[in-house]
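User: I'm new to structure prediction. If I give you an amino acid sequence, what do you actually give back? Let's try with this one:
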Amino acid sequence: MIPPHCLLTKRKALLPYGSNVSAPKIELPNLDLFKSERGSLAQNYFQNSISMLQREYDQLIDLAKMNELVYESEYNFVPRVGQTYHLYMDLDSKKILLSMIDPPWRNKEYRYSVEFTSDSVWKVVDKKE
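Assistant: Good question. You get back a string of structure tokens that encode the predicted 3D arrangement of the chain. For your 129 residues, that looks like this:
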């Protein structure tokens, strides 16, 4: 049997670090540069994600406001999914009307063309410039 201290001396060359005083100095790599670069990349990622979420939130708010306007408008029919309808403002009474009549319509100001979706949400198809 080989004594344990002899095994250590045979394996010293395989160690990833120096095992005696005369071995080369162990220098740690500078991680500050890596951390600052990766930290700024991570920060940019999160900032971009937040701005994308903000844009999506703003679009949802606009969609909700437009849907509220359409649902509060006057119409005398049951909307069908996939059908395009037109939103007008009556110039005399200032009421919002939802109609199947294509623009232009006499005495009415055209606002939007909307489509009724299967989610019961109105989606803008054509908006007045």
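You can read the tokens as a compact description of the fold. Here is one thing that stands out. Helices lie at 4-11, 31-72.
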